[in-house]
Design brief:
Elements: H1 2-11, H2 13-21, E1 37-41, H3 45-50, E2 54-57, E3 60-61, H4 64-70, E4 75-80, H5 101-113, E5 117-122, H6 145-165, E6 172-175, E7 182-183, E8 188-189, H7 194-211, E9 216-221, H8 227-239, E10 246-251, H9 257-270, E11 275-281, H10 285-293, E12 300-306, E13 316-318, E14 321-322, E15 354-357, H11 362-382
Parallel strand pairs: 1-4, 1-12, 2-15, 4-5, 5-6, 6-9, 9-10, 10-11, 11-12
Antiparallel strand pairs: 2-3, 7-8, 13-14, 13-15
Helix pairs in contact: 1-11, 6-7, 9-10
């Protein structure tokens, strides 16, 4: 019965996504009109598979996207760097420049063919961009600020127009990754250069709107457990005229489910014009998704687990142990050395071997079933 219900949900996903894209403009309250997003960022997949990684579900080898979809996932998030093959780029030591536009186009086609939604996460850098670093791409280092604004516009436009041309437009695009402290340092570093940070965001947003006004604009802050910091950041952007659709939060703090819930609840009430997503998380999977789903007035759109095949509490095992390794220890802060590398000399070490689904993936079958039942009951009651 569950499988039949899930197939019915997937068959209607494209129609519901269309409804999401037609949600009210930013000046009106934002409400969830599509199925709750159970998403995953699997940007490491291409390089891992090229290195020999295979995926199994209950002993049967399958395509990773099929495995995820079979267990309730309906959206994929992919990161894109400006030039990951640069000397200090994400893929400087890889055989190919993974997570560049060319590789993203291939992955986007796989996502589209699987019948799943797509969120593109633009890193305006050659390497990891997060609160501790927003390194300007090598090719942009000597640009004046007006030229830098144009470079942001051009890069955003190029990525999204290329995806649109091959028929794989994303439903959502992140204008920057974990931009707590701005982008493109030092020119767009916040709070010191908040005006320029806002101008750079506006440039990327403008390019996205020019390609396809229906693509929802996501801004991303890492402070999922810090309501006051997020509010101050958001108010600063709004006072400078930055207009977007969805606020994404990273919820990577171990032991913070209640703070996440309080933050989502407050933001949904305080800023009713925005949808909300958990753009990254790993731990406390049930609590996190319940917090987003139950945000006031259905403003919580969904969640994206970060690299769930082999990071933190992974939903796959390797050699009989959780593929997240030391990071998989529940309710303990993972060692800094085990977090995604921020070393500007390279991106990551690709994995190889056989990865098998573990019991953690079963939670997503249950989440999909539970959330669908709640929606169906609410619909019956309203009728």
């Amino acid at each position: 019965m569950l499988k039949i219900a899930m197939k019915w949900c997937y068959a209607l996903l494209s129609l519901f996504l269309a409804a999401l894209l037609l949600a009210a403009p930013a000046t009106q309250p934002f409400h969830r009109t599509a199925p709750f997003i159970l998403g995953a960022d699997i940007s490491w997949t291409q390089e891992d598979q090229a290195n020999g990684t295979t995926y199994y579900d209950h002993g049967q080898q399958e395509d990773l996207l099929k495995i995820l979809k079979d267990h309730g996932f309906n959206f994929i998030r992919l990161r894109v760097f400006v030039n990951p093959g640069a000397a200090d780029g994400y893929a400087a030591h890889s055989q190919e420049p993974y997570c560049d536009l060319a590789h993203t186009l291939v992955m986007a086609k796989r996502v589209h063919d699987a019948g799943m939604g797509l969120l593109i996460d633009l890193h305006y850098s050659d390497n990891w961009a997060d609160p501790s670093k927003q390194q300007t791409p090598d090719a942009w280092e000597d640009l004046s600020f007006p030229q830098l604004r144009q470079a942001v516009y051009d890069f955003t436009y190029q990525v999204l127009s290329s995806l649109k041309k091959q028929g794989t437009s994303p439903q959502m695009v992140q204008i920057g990754n974990e931009t707590n402290n701005g982008v493109l340092w030092p020119a767009g570093r916040a709070p010191r250069n908040f005006d320029q940070f806002a101008d750079l965001l506006k440039s990327g947003i403008s390019a996205a709107r020019a390609v396809d006004p229906s693509i929802k604009i996501v801004l991303h802050h890492a402070g999922g457990a810090n309501n006051q910091v997020v509010r101050k950041w958001l108010d600063n952007l709004l006072s400078r005229g930055v207009q977007f659709d969805i606020l994404g939060l990273s919820c990577n703090d171990v032991g913070s489910p209640q703070r996440w819930k309080e933050n989502f609840d407050d933001l949904a009430t305080r800023y009713p014009q925005f949808g909300l997503i958990a753009a990254e998380y790993s731990y406390h999977k049930r609590e996190l998704n319940d917090a987003v789903f139950n945000a006031p007035d259905q403003r919580g759109l969904g969640s994206f687990i970060w690299e769930p095949t082999r990071h933190h509490e992974a939903i796959f095992d390797k050699n009989g142990h959780n593929a997240g390794g030391a990071d998989a220890i529940p309710h303990s802060r993972p060692p800094r050395s085990k977090r995604p590398t921020s070393n500007p000399a390279g991106g990551h070490h690709p994995e190889t071997g056989r990865f098998n689904t573990n019991q953690l993936i079963d939670l997503y079958d249950q989440l999909s079933k539970d959330f669908m039942a709640i929606v169906n009951n609410a619909t019956k009651t309203s009728n």
